[in-house]
Amino acid sequence: MVSRWGVPAMSEVMERAAPRLVRAQPLLRMADVSKRYGDVAALEHVSAEVYPGEVLGIVGESGSGKSTLLRMMNLEELPDEGRYALDLPGVPEDLFAMDGYARRMLRARHIGIVYQNPHLGLLMKNSSSGNVAERLLVAGERRFSVLREKAKQSLDASEFPLERMDAPPIELSGGMQQRVQLAKAIALEPAVLLLDEPTTGLDVSVQALVLDTLKRLQRERRITMVIVSHDLGVIRTMADRVMVMRRGRVVEAGLVDQVFQDPQAAYTQALVHAKL
């Protein structure tokens, strides 16, 4: 069965998925997305669906197109072709068709992102609380006391030490910088949280703490997440379903345990065996 967006129906997957998944319409849908940079095909006819409360993992080697796809989901880039929808009230059927201002406003209100490089998501010399408040300002909040309190709540939810909330990210460790990014990303309770290699470059012990925080937030708030990583352990820990990408195409997709325990595509088999 194929949906009208050209994406395979997920009814069978949803019936067998983890208990936290809820039968519903997809919250996020991308259909037939392609992108070229000169002669290089970054994405070729990629489709994806993410359901409310679900965590979708995307894995692949460098250059596979996974980060490009995430930037498309964050409306930072437009494709050469394809469609993108979020099942939210008052949101147009195709987000790619909106003008630049409308895309920026939708991204600010409904999509959160944590980048691999904190410099892409934070103003490194501003206070940590100020970085979180910046997102609230975009949504129209102007009262200082409210900005301060909401920033504090968001930092606390990301398990950031509140005694450091006025410290600028440039003075913080990599793990703490990621927590500031996370606090900023969840400040407006986004419909979708995007995570681009959120633990890469962190010490193993710090990686575990960040992943524990993400898992707790997902469990408590039922946040819909898309996480990109080259680390299969991170995907196995966080995700319900996984897409395996190579050279701009999806070569395999399914439930995490299913794909990692019984990979069907030769590339997925090589990827899994290389990590054993």
UniProtKB/TrEMBL annotation:
InterPro entries: AAA+_ATPase, ABC_transporter-like_ATP-bd, ABC_transporter-like_CS, P-loop_NTPase, PhnK. Pfam families: ABC_tran. Transmembrane segments: none annotated. Keywords: ATP-binding, Nucleotide-binding. Residues 28-272 form the ABC transporter domain. GO terms for molecular function: ATP binding; ATP hydrolysis activity. It comes from the Bacteria. GO terms for biological process: organic phosphonate catabolic process. This is Putative phosphonate transport system ATP-binding protein. It comes from Salipiger abyssi.
